[in-house]
Amino acid sequence: MRDQPASQVTEIDQTQEPKTLVEAAYLRMRRDIIEGIYAPGEKLRVEHLKDQYEVGAGTLREALLLLVTDALVVAQGQRGFRVAPISIADCEDISHTRVLLETEALRQSIARGDDAWEAALVAAFHRLTRAEQKLCDNDDSTTEEWEKCNRAFHEALISASTSRWIRHFQQILYQQSERYRRVSLFRQPITRDIHAEHHALFDATLARDAARASSILSEHILRTLDAVKRLPVDFFSQRA
Amino acid sequence: MRDQPASQVTEIDQTQEPKTLVEAAYLRMRRDIIEGIYAPGEKLRVEHLKDQYEVGAGTLREALLLLVTDALVVAQGQRGFRVAPISIADCEDISHTRVLLETEALRQSIARGDDAWEAALVAAFHRLTRAEQKLCDNDDSTTEEWEKCNRAFHEALISASTSRWIRHFQQILYQQSERYRRVSLFRQPITRDIHAEHHALFDATLARDAARASSILSEHILRTLDAVKRLPVDFFSQRA
DNA sequence: TTATATAAAAATCTCGAGATTAATTATTGA
DNA sequence: TCAATAATTAATCTCGAGATTTTTATATAA
């Protein structure tokens, strides 16, 4: 269940090299948007960005259209492209929808997951544990490594789900929440013990306790929302 | 709540004229794919389609990328575009995910819907009723009219939902299920009383009976799945 | 006959320039 | 001084042609 492509739709396998200039530009721009190099609401001018990413105008437009699929970029006819805006209301919506989808997918995984699923989950949790041990030293590379492991862990949890569509939507929402997580981690230190939450989630899942696991997962997601809510309100002012 | 754009992401307002050639080609191709003019799995060659839709190659590529957002087209790097395949398993997945999302959105609507929501719902139901009365004569145009009213009714039901994301995903899934509904309606006559189901759903919603309404909605969606399951298996063989 | 390698054909991907539209600045009149 | 209009600038949208890659067809050898 791990060898299928990342998405039913785009078929862009992120583990290997991008096959085309469009995909390469798409992947680079996606990282830059999530990392906040381009601010929410900021205009994305093709004429400038094509030099930045060293591709033609048409190629860059196609990369932007791929980002529309991820809802990281908004396109308006005859008025170009913008980075998707952020807001507290949006973060609330993302979090609650994630709870709805991920808890359902987790229940499906626990009900139908086989040995291969368990093995992959154990491996993902192990890598996440290592990454969280290294997280103490405030290094950018360790944070990025943790982010990858965290994502892999959450995907491993639900990888035995029967629903490709839920997993597809989950990936979009996880990516969206990554934007908020970055700003909240950057502005205020982590007070909660994230590793303990992950450990409890891991244990309940392996014990096949669907009710407890989904309850922990739900609280886990909503705690990130609380952190965003504590940010100063002027943080969400959009850039023209 | 009705004057907001169709989607948070694409901002393509279908009620008014498309502002660009890309959008126009996108809308036409989308209709053609849903109507089955291009078979599931079929290769979509840019060189041929650009003549068909009378646009340049780059323009048509962009339209295809917009269809990737709807998961109606699958893109593979250096290997072009294909119509998204269909299968019974996919239809099951779509139906169950729709149940999960639409029942939740309906509960939110019933909990928070105001007078404007009720009024819009009553209007949508009225139009749907009229369309279902005219549906007896097996005309293509009346079927298309019914399809529009059915979609508007389902969207009106959940339009007071607090979650833009659920509504966004619902629109994608509804569009997907439309493909299956077309083939099942075409191959076998309608045995169930769809209007009675809609009426019961409408009454329970206006009565603010969330449990009953979501129960009816759930069964309503799953009955369409049953119709697809009754189709001959060779119907889902993909075209090269 | 089957399999492998080579050559031809077709399709995709990529780019830069021209046409159309939106945004900005300057001008005019009240 | 302010508002409305016109001219200028800038950006988007669109297209066709060339460069790569994939696919198909052909030929050769086992």
Query: What percent of residues of chain A adopt helix (DSSP H or I)?
Result: 55-70%
Largest interface: A-B, 40 and 40 residues
CATH topology grouping of the largest domain in chain A = Four Helix Bundle (Hemerythrin (Met), subunit A)
**Strand residue percentage of chain A:** under 5%
The whole-number mean of residue pLDDT values of chain A reads: 90
- Broad shape of chain A: globular
Strand order in the largest sheet of chain A: 1-3-2
What can be said about the biggest beta sheet of chain A? 3 strands, antiparallel
- The number of distinct structural domains of chain A comes to 2
CATH class of the largest domain in chain A: Mainly Alpha
Q: From the alpha-carbon coordinates, what is the Rg of chain A to the nearest angstrom? A: 18 Å
Quaternary organisation of the protein chains: homodimer
Question: From the 3D coordinates, which CATH architecture of the largest domain in chain A would you assign?
Answer: Up-down Bundle
| Overall SS class of chain A | mainly alpha
- Cα(first) to Cα(last) distance of chain A is 43 Å
* Strand runs of chain A, count: 3
User: Count the helices of chain A. How many?
Assistant: 9
- The residue ranges of chain A in which pLDDT falls below 50 over 5 or more consecutive positions are 1-8
